[in-house]
Amino acid sequence: MAGGALKYRHLSRSSAHRQALLRNLVTSLIMHESIKTTWAKAKEAQRLAEKVITLGKKNTEASRRRAESILFQPLDHLPKLFDELRRR
Question: Quick check: 61 and 77 in contact, CB under 8 A?
């Protein structure tokens, strides 16, 4: 069906490149708490960032491992995600 709803934005990249880009954006967002990017990339990164923040709020071992699999350099950013950002 032409013109149907998209499940996600493809961002003119292969799936591996798109996933790496979004993981990198979310990691930068957690590190710097603010990023500059295009509107389309921001909307896609927002979806992943909200999922990661929700994992931080759950604060279980399973959620820590899931967040670890999403973030680049997880040992640097997990303490901030599960401490400071969790309380906001």
Answer: no
What pLDDT is recorded for position 86?
86
Determine the Cα–Cα distance for residues 61 and 18; give it in Å rounded to an integer: 27
Alpha-carbon span 25 to 34, nearest angstrom = 10
Q: Pull the structure tokens for residue 22.
A: 């979004």
Beta strands in 1-88 (DSSP E): none
Q: Which amino acid is at 80?
A: K
pTM (two decimals) = 0.88
Residue 52: exposed, middle, or buried by beta-carbon count in 10 A (0-12, 13-18, 19+)? buried
